[in-house]
Queue: 3 jobs
Job 1
Amino acid sequence: MFTTNDVHQQFAAFFKSEILQPYAYLVSRKLGEGHICLPLEDLNEEKETLPEHYKELLGKRHRLEDEPMIATQAGQRRPFVLFNDRLYLQRYFSYETRILERLLAFVQTEAVAFAERAGRLKELKELLASLFPPAQSDEPQTDWQMIAAITAFLNDFTIITGGPGTGKTTTVARILALLFHASPDLRVALAAPTGKAAARMAESLKKASSGLPEAIASKFQTLQPSTIHRLLGYVPDSSAFRHSAGNPLAFDVVVVDESSMIDAALFAKLLEAVGNGTRLILLGDKDQLASVEAGSLFGDLCQAQERLNIFDQHRALLFSELVNEPARGLKQEDVGPHSAHPLFQHVVELRYSHRFKGDQGIGKFSRAVIRGDAEAVRSFLTSKDEQVRLYTSKDSSFLEEFGEGYADYIAEQDIASALQKMNKLRVLCAVREGEQGLYLLNKKIENYLERKKLIRVNAPFYENRPVMVTANNYTAGLFNGDTGIVRTDSRGVLQVYFEDSENGLKAVLPGYISKSETVFAMTIHKSQGSEFDRVLVVLPEDEELPILTRELLYTGITRARMQVCLEATEPVILKASERLVKRASGIAERMSTHVHQINS
């Protein structure tokens, strides 16, 4: 009897065809690694990683097109799909197809409304100018925030991407101001993959509305954030949602933040739930980590064209009519011939960071990492920089030095101030297990603070324990990623205090928090969307770990506003900067050719 602990072999063994089994094994493993499909052009490279008996089977001459379990034509309902020299599980080919078809539908429906929307924008020219005042700069640059706002007003589907500090949320606030002015009864939904990210976006939008006319600013105060699952209507014990193509969302605008975290399945279902005539605006950083589950759809869409921020002559003329100062409009190199690509003029990259300068500190370091510029990365190993401190030795004193910073929030008596101080710094790690993993780092910091008599670890919820919620709790109004602090209330009862949506305090008894972690340290994946004044990034010593990529390192570095400390060996830092995540999918190729030959 065949037995194995390898889930991919278990999946492959389900199919009786020995010819199919190695392919089934690879498709299953690829999904586990975040890929949507198996590119057959990579088969020789993948063959070396197969169990021995599969290597032999793969060597046999056979046409996959002849396999009865593989669909090659429209209408065939089979477990696998062979398309464009890529092998998919049928379900994931379906997701990819549905995403492509919905994007094409967005482009077709918005074309009908283009002339009316362009005319309305011209009427709002004065408001547009007031929303985007000239920047205080010696050299006027293209105002990509304004270009993004105009684009989102005209389109039904818009992607706005940019690194930290480029003003994605500020841009959306101004887009909504334009839309609220044009339609006072506008229905707006705010969503993100996590409740914490959604709440943070809503809070940022409310702050960004200050200075707007009262009639418009008041609209922002009514915005209610939601997770994508809650927005779509999560059905327990089901992969379906209440809102779908047959029951679309009842909103005029849907804004989704941290879109790089959305996997293929959720992406397809989100797009289908947005009805015709509803604007969908996706925000995110294309260079950040992709979703934990299969697919990197946001990054794929951002990189589906050879260049971003290219507009045709017709759109360029409209921009010139709307932008008062020519220097803030498109440059000659930003104007090109019209393209039939579905995403042409639908993706805008914000390129100027108001937080980091690209020629120094965190901005320079993060740019070097995401570009894989080994020479620039190596220069930080030998130079001194106030914003970037690297620890490449095995001396663990750096952790205690950084952990000393947590003393500030512990000493602070005012709970609201203590929460703010606690969230000014964070240790970030790549893995959970091992010497540089989450569990041991949290324990080391606890031990250090206990030796200093700053805390006393005498119970799971001890006084001053920093807590991160790890599962949504709608009853308590807590979301996955919310952070709080354990303190005794006026009656001597231990409570976990969190900031509420109005920047006040919310106290929750520990017994109501079923899933949580101590959060002196957290994983880089969990930190996405968060910001801290100071960050310590700790990486494992094994430079060959596949998880150590430039996207992971970039995401960790850019969580810091003022200073990032990085503890890792030089080979690990350089190897991580070199390793680029490339998740296999066919969406870019299919989009560029408008191929939809197999419908599911």
Note: The chain has a mean pLDDT of 87.
Job 2
Amino acid sequence: MKFKTYLAKDSKLSEGLCVLGWSNNEHIYSCGNDQQIYKWTSTNREFMQVAKLPDGFVPSDLHWLVSKNGNLSSSSSAGPAGGKAAECLLLAGTEGSFVILNKSVRFDRNVMAHLGTITSSRWSPDGSGLLTAGEDGIIKIWSRSGMLRSTVVQNEGPIRCARWAPDASAIAYSQGTFVSIKPLAANSKILKWRAHDGMVLCLSWSNNTGMIATGGEDCRYKIWDTQGTNIYVSVTDDFAITSVEFSPDGILLAVGGFNMIKLCHFSGWSHSIVRFNQQVIGSLFNIVWATDGTQIAASTSTGIMLFGHIIERELRNRNLKAMTIGRKTILLQDIVCRTSDTLDFPERIIKWELGYGHLVVATVHQLHIFNEHYVNTPIIIDGRSDIRLIKLGRKNFLVVDHASIWIYTYSGRLHLNPRYNGSQTQVAQLNARCISLGIDCFAVRDHADQTIVHVFDLLPSATRQEEPYSIHSKAIVVEVAVCRFGNPADQYLVYLDANQDLYIASVHDGSEFISYKIGAQVTNVMWSSDTNILVGLHDLSYSVWYCPGEACTDPTLIALTTFTYDTSEIGKNISLENFEGANVTFRSSGAIFTVSVKPYCVILHKLFAENQWEKALKLCRLMQSQLLWATLAAMASKRNQLDISEEAFCASLQIDKVYHLEYIKSMSPSSPKHMAENSIMSGRVQEAETILLHSKRLKEAIRLSIRVHRWEEALELALKHGIDVDFVLAERARYLRALEREENNSHFLATRKNP
């Protein structure tokens, strides 16, 4: 992946370009020392004068706030819905004032803000306000109409650069060799650290990843997290780093210096570098990304406008490899058959994804669906513009545009347009980590309340297509992943919270989802495309859960079916790229590493999906692996295969479960107690209690609640039906005596006083 760069056709702007910004994906506005505002076209790189600034106003920073189809989005961020009147341009000047211009580049207001030059001016992510930072060491927050709201920072030294946090809860700014983060909450402390050996010249805060990039006079660029921890330090360049900017989706980073521009991953490592050795263009300032994240523009110290777009982005999936070789061209290759096809599109390519034998390409106004067997006859969907995200599934694929979420079949038919409360205003905040597409379900995290995950059913005529179920987490959810394999009854969802705890839930449990914690200190997860095996990354290791769905109810089985491996030989800053079959692909500092999970577990999962229990049993007897036996035990218990699960538990040395299975087998197979004990064996306690209550087995239901230490439910059942109250109180007293504790439950204390 690299930038293909072009210089402006006309370089007569002898006064130089100071500031610039994208108003949409086709046009850039710039302004220089000549006080003229120019409008550039990215396709032909030509410009025209559109306005003139007031006399004496020399621009120092520029930022567009653009309204598109009712959604606010800036050249570096996007926010909730606004109106067309929200389209406006913010220009800061060297004499300490800023001006706001409307969509037609007409002056709305001119505000005197600082004593000295304004070094940074930025609209807030939601477009409701703006910040200004100046050489007087002050950062101020203003309303959209230019009214002063607050002064958040007052320092003695000049501020070089300032940026909003993605959620507008803090401001990061550079001062000399230091970078600081000032939270906007009351009575909060400033986080400050030394970032570079020389002055910090540029700063950028990523929307989706939360990473902070800085560049300095020490000729390095660095990546930081929000706690000031250093993630990446580049090698020393020949000249100072004058500009850094994250792409709108936060995946890429553009770095500029003298006669040099780099395309980097958000974690710091470089995809490619372009050096302009034939012509001196000077240092690159004000690198800005278009909102679609495929092209950039930059101004240089010599007054030249630089354009660039991304080419040679490569995706691989099984036997297919696809690579962009131009703005409108993709080369699709079949590695096995050694064939290749060049796919030309009438418009510029915005997003594209490869998987499950299909290539889905989004251009400016269309979606193109290619089947690997019918490359010459794509299916075209018109009217889909501003595509921000594409995700492929086994049966369907989803796209996210400026208006909503759309799920299509590979035949081009619209399958579902999922909606939930506030979904249209939250589309701009959706990213690849908070949305997931499975075989028969779709999950998305609510942005307004980030502890809620909405689950939609993709099966025909399912009620959850219109009224989704919700999973409630105790902490903020940062990643959601739905499994990509299995029968409709074996679909699971995992989510990571802000504490890096990993939870799993069955997506077909009904309206009351029960979540089980199966991991800790996990940073990223991914399901296999062919089995219900899960892989997760830690800081210096990765874990493989070979049977997370079926074993999640039993901590012992989870421990037996989970393996953790060291990644010190791979390197740092590892990311998950792909999980196909038994092969997991990692990427570290640009290098790709492939590791294999246990292949016999993959075979076992496929036999389980086909209900071939005898073959699964033969496989385990042949291999004599405790991992295989524990996986078979969990699977067989869920399917009520008592004989197989008994042998599997015995082979994996789970003697207590073997005794329990013998007790279950001694009952009548059709009795309610037999069904209830089966549910208990699989960890479904609520289901077991429901079975006993529906069959009027009240005493058994009370004793079941006592067995699993659900004391309040046992007392509630006893009081409601007027039976075994004394028995419950006696068992509770015996339980407390064994623990050597006093009664502290108010319900039991009240019942003892008023029997």
Note: The first strand starts at residue 2 and ends at 7.
Job 3
Amino acid sequence: MRFAPPGSAPRGRDRKAVVVPAHPGRSRPVPGRRPACAVIGGGIAGIAAATILAERGVAVTLYEREPSLGGRLAGWPEVLCDGSHVTMSRGFHAFFRQYYNLRGLLRRVDPGLDRLTGLPDYPLRHGSGLHDSFARVPRTPPWSAVGFVARSPSFGWSDLARMSPRDALPLLDVSLPEVYRRYDGLSARAFFDSIRFPAAARHLAFEVFSRSFFADPEELSAAELVLMFHIYFLGSSEGLLFDVPDEPYPQALWDPLARYLRGHGVEILTGTAVDGLTAAPGGGHVVSTASGSRRVDAVVLAVDTDGLRSIVSGSPTLCDAAWRGRIGSLRTAPPFLVSRFWLDRPVGGHRQGFLGTSGYGPLDNVSVLDRWEGEAARWAAGSGGAVVELHAYAVGHGTDRERLGRELLTQLHRVYPETRAARVVDERHELRSDCPLFVVGGHEARPTVGTSDPTVTVAGDLVRTDHPVALMERAATTGFLAANAHLRRWGLRGQTLWTVPTAGRSAALRLMARAGGRHPATHGGQ
């Protein structure tokens, strides 16, 4: 890896962004020796892998068990009770400016990223009345932290003085895999207790960051939270503002990418679940589905946790027994609910398109979709109403989704009182439980891109990597890495990647961090 020269990083503004050069090789296979690869999973990771493989001339078959591509960002048609045709999805996702590799994937079909529109703020509100904003916070560390403290009503200079410098300073020098050696044996909540993070700011920033993983802070590894702070706040100058697609996910993202893939010869099989893999005579694998089987030279497993466990349990000779055992022990995060309401009157014009919340019962955030999504805006304009989406993370198993949805609506009335007078024209509730859980001490058990079988790679946001990436960007990055591993074996050129800085941003801050000594979690082990 090397630092990008000033002005040379086209995917972001951070002059310290790190480029991971592509390995060299041919741009196309030798005639008559075209390899075949099965990419199992049509979410971000699978689409990224299929894209670079197809661009290099590999024969790719993309399997997706659901009717459409997109994974957790998939969308599907619905008809409302007023006869309107709309697109439902599993909820809002923020496309941060640090997502260099995801953005590189989207540029295949949208070179200027014109389908992404920036929201002006990332506001946070607590039920007590505290409110934080990142709109006017400087983007470059350490001024981002200084600006946040200077402006935040929930985190003041006195709070900073009460924190434990010795334990907090290592946040200024995050590197991989060291961050996991230091913090994976500690829960996110215990970590904040140890550095004496102020309670008010914890309820805002801490809750928002930790619950981005759909997990209770008691179960979430502190290493993931510390890495998040590095990626989004202390290690990158891209800031905490983000973009969102200007239309529903299928129209803005996946339909164009599906056309792009088919144009490169990819066979896309949606609604097709893979039952298992068996060794093929002479090498490679046989991919089995309900409709038949086919032989391939290599496989990319780009599915969610449950899907990976299912495929591995149906593939008793895949890789080795120890690897299969680790896959079988993976856990999913608690369920989350996405409730979308079509209201008969607008939300106040001064309201933000997105708001992170804490202290409002189960409500974690509010999205006013008609502020940015074209389909929602057209419905709102025609009806005089609004389209509002509410999220609740880490809810209990067996939750009644309609009942919880009504509670979220009640909390919306607290957050935006003008919605109390609104009538619900229609509503949809999606209760899902398929996100990976990054448990305390679980880092070593998570799969890596590579396996004991070089013809099998793994991709997705559950995969561990030594690159500082998370959430959607981890999915895209590991998708490219999983494809790169096969391309290298076949003598084909790989995909160049970018990441946020891989360590603290300045020598002075790194020295301060190291002078603070080792965090007690270093001795806790995994």
Note: Residues 471-489 form the longest helix (19 residues).
